[in-house]
Amino acid sequence: MEAVAREVFRAYHYLEIRTPLLEETQLFARGVGQDTDIVTKEMYTFEDRDGSSLTLRPEATASVIRAYIEHRLDQRPGVQKLYYMGPMFRRERPQKGRYRQFYQIGAEAIGSESALIDAEVIEMVVEILRGVGLQDFALLLNSVGCPDCRPRYVAALREALKDVSGGMCEDCRRRSVTNPLRVLDCKVEADQPIIEALPSILDYLCEKCGPHFAAVQQYLRDREIRFEIRPRLVRGLDYYMRTTFEVVHGALGAQNSVLGGGRYDGLAESLGSKIHSPGIGFSIGEDRLVMSVEADEDATGLDLFIAPLGEAAQRHAGILARDLRREGLSVELAAEARLKRAMELANKLGARHTLILGGDEIAAGSYALKDMRSGEQHSVTREELHTRLTASVPK
Ligand SMILES: [Zn+2]
Ligand SMILES: [Zn+2]
């Protein structure tokens, strides 16, 4: 997955950035937000020998922006496009797909407010997901407004919550006062009907945020990227503004988010930048992406399993396998001489196709190719083989 992501990042002209695992605690308190679960409950924070407070990075965006400011990356030409991959640390309750040391693949594009950048970042995310073989995922999209329009929405939300928060969970009751926007983030089942009935931020977007959001949607439609608008989608982090997105996948249950991202136009300033440095980024939960891909049928990387019958067929199969591999296909050649055992193995490996090769096939110059999903068998020439094999690759 990391190899696929690197390839996609290269195509979109992103360069790798490696930030330290440890940062000053203050960076995350300011960059991630004081009232977030991450900062209040989940960070691994400890005192260094000189009494200063250090924290194992719970996410990378704040660190990337710190590096951007500290090393004056704003002086470089164009939008700064940076990607990262590596371990992050949060003291959460370990569960399926959630670990205290977990892995993220992410990217940030800093230096532009343009909706074109938003669309390109989302397109890049979709390319990575397709590239690793994820299917049946949903892209959820929203705009969370800006400092000009969000306060009006938050005020309306606060007002609406006055009447209903009494019947909500403890976190919601607290947040309805401290940070009403985060109420929308609540995962408690009983609270959902109440949350659904709250005012929508999309009715409050200002004359800048409205057209920006419309443009992002238009650019995504131009790219034939399907998305669903979710007005309740707010990120857990305070610095997000305007475009916000998430990708969910059924295999992960209620905590079904594979990745989240969005625009954070005010973050650099809140971390001490004197220059306005709007940005947009995302981070993929790598552990959860692995789980999702594994849960998808046909997500195997094996295009073809070849079972040769006899010595002559083995030699022929060896050359055929080499040639197909050179053409970029993933091919397994049975070491097992007994056909029944070989076919059992092909099944277990989840091969998309199998090819049984005997003297008759070699003499005739055609191959009996079996599609393991449909069970159909076709007689194909060597020339047709590549086309057949790549046509059914789910990408
Ligand atoms: Zn606005
Ligand atoms: Zn709640």
Tell me what you see in this structure.
The chain has helices spanning 2-11, 25-32, 37-42, 61-70, 115-131, 150-164, 170-178, 192-196, 209-222, 267-270, 286-295, 311-326, 339-349, 359-364, 382-391; strands at residues 15-16, 22-24, 45-47, 53-56, 80-89, 101-110, 137-143, 228-229, 241-249, 257-263, 279-285, 304-308, 331-333, 353-357, 366-371, 377-381. The chain is an alpha+beta fold. The protein folds into two domains: 2-149 and 205-295, BirA Bifunctional Protein, domain 2 (2-Layer Sandwich); 304-391, Anticodon-binding domain (Rossmann fold, 3-Layer(aba) Sandwich). An eight-stranded mixed sheet has the order 1-5-6-11-10-9-7-8. It has a five-stranded mixed sheet with strand order 13-12-14-15-16, sandwiched between helices. A three-stranded antiparallel sheet has the order 2-4-3. α1 packs antiparallel against α5, α2 (25-32) packs across α4 and α5 (115-131) runs parallel beside α9. The chain is elongated, with a radius of gyration of 25 Å. The chain binds zinc ion (2 copies). One zinc ion binds next to loops.
Shape designation: elongated
The percent of residues in helical segments reads 25-40%
Stretches with pLDDT under 50, minimum 5 residues: none
In percent, how much strand structure appears in the residues? 15-25%
CATH superfamily of the largest domain: Bira Bifunctional Protein, Domain 2
Number of DSSP strand runs? 16
Distinctive features:
395 residues; alpha+beta; BirA Bifunctional Protein, domain 2; Rossmann fold; 8-stranded mixed sheet; 5-stranded mixed sheet; 22% strand; elongated; binds zinc ion
